[in-house]
Amino acid sequence: MPELTEIARDHSKMRTELGMAPEDQPLSPMTPVMDAKWRFMWKIGERPENAADDFPQVIPEAFPEWEKKMDTWGNKLNQASFTVAEMAAVGMGISRDAFTKRMEGGAHLLAPTGSDLEKNDVGTVFAGWHYDISLMTVHGKSRYPGLLIWTRDWKKRPVKIPEGCLLVQSGTSFEHITGGYIPAGYHEVIYTDATREVVNKKKSALEQ
After folding, report:
1. Euclidean distance between CA atoms 111 and 80, whole angstroms
2. What's the pTM value of the predicted model, to 2 decimals?
């Protein structure tokens, strides 16, 4: 999907009612704007024959190893989600496969995402303030900062993923299936001052 195609839902009423401190307010405008990000949706794993999401796998011509790399990385992230789901079930004292047996054959997607850090500048919204509808979203380490998340007490935190680690965010499907015990995590992706700092460092390194 090209940039300016996706847009977050309007959560302005909720944002007003939460009464978050100024420093914890989303950087996204109160009225959502179109996301300035590009991304693919790559299906991971087997789907039931009657699956409604049976869309074609698109392979960019400039990336001949796309399918192999997407399947390799996607399956690793997907396996991580199954492991986390199993751990969550054990931690809640319910059947070990309570979640994973419902995940089998699900609409697992890898969504490689890119943003133009040359054309855009500080303040650009790459993903407006939102939650994911999935059971969970698993992120690898990004090359640039800009992902901001909110804790249960609505405190904003910039994400810094250590080397060799993954970030797991809960979605509304997890919130629903646990009766709200695990709430969906709100987050946004913004071109911040920290993003520009890394961009400038990388430019300087290339020029030397």
Report:
1. 16
2. 0.91
Question: Residue 148's domain spans which residues?
Answer: 123-208
Q: Report pLDDT for 118.
A: 93
Residues constituting the chain: 208
What lies within 8 Å, CB to CB, of 155 at 6+ separation is 24
The pLDDT tens digits of the residues spanning 9-44 come to 999 999 999 999 999 999 999 999 999 999 989 999
CA atoms of 176 and 188, how far apart (whole Å): 21
Q: 85 in a domain, yes or no?
A: no
Instruction: Please give the single-letter amino acid code of residue 121.
Output: D
Beta bridge partners of 168: 138
Name the residue type at position 189: V
CB-CB neighbours of 104 under 10 Å: 12
Distance CA 193, CA 146 (A): 9
The reply to whether 150 falls in a domain is yes
Give the contacts of 119 (CB within 8 A, at least 6 positions apart). none
Provide the domain count of the chain.
Answer: 1
φ, ψ of residue 157 in degrees (nearest 5): -135, 130
Provide the percentage of residues in the chain whose pLDDT is more than 90.
Answer: 85
* Cα 75 from Cα 83, distance rounded (Å): 12
Residue 26, Cβ density class (10 Å: 0-12 exposed, 13-18 middle, ≥19 buried): buried
